[in-house]
Amino acid sequence: MYFRDALDSLYGKPADSPNLVTEPYHRFNGDAWQKIIFADSHDTAANGSVRLNEAADPDGGDNLSAQQRLLTASAIALTAPGIPMMLQGQEFMQEGAFNDWQALEWNKATEYHGIVLAHQHLIQHRLNTYGVTAGLLRPITGHLPPKRPQYRSLATTAWDKGGPGDDTLVLANFGGDHFEQYDVHLPVAGTWYIRFNSTWHGYSEAFPDFVTESFTTDGSGNATITLPSHAVLIMSQDN
To answer: pTM for the whole thing?
Structure first.
């Protein structure tokens, strides 16, 4: 399942193209684990001679916008139900075509070590390495309509048995607007902790220093949080 077209619909491309509200729910033979999900592939990079980060911002495959959008796409692919696949070099902003005569620029892994680290953290959360995102191990997901539907944002929940350390919320802002106050509704009231923030300064010196670590809802599960532009937040409750 290719997410680049679905992402295009949220970045101002044709509205009738696949979109991230519907794509994650597609299954083969009724099983979410019989599909491969990815944001970039060797076919698109080889045939089109352009990788996702370049397609996201043709003015520079390694600038701020490209970094933000690549990481957003990777975060969606690594949190959606299915078997995630990554294109080699995606984790360090590799540019150019994919072929058997063009070597990867491994020095970029050092240059963009923060982007590499972000992908490591995403994979660890996908595997529930820290014991706080068990929901990402299961194909059960739900879509939460945002309180501000006119903006390009998406909220999904994932769960296995449910409860603290299991229920996982993924909130994505695909637009360029930064919201100091963004209304969300959580499936369970209480304190929620931000486990992953794609705009963390540690992932790139160009990213904003957004340091909110947790927030608490009212008794109905409503909360107002800060939502940076081009951001993906992964949240759950403590056990």
So the answer is: 0.88
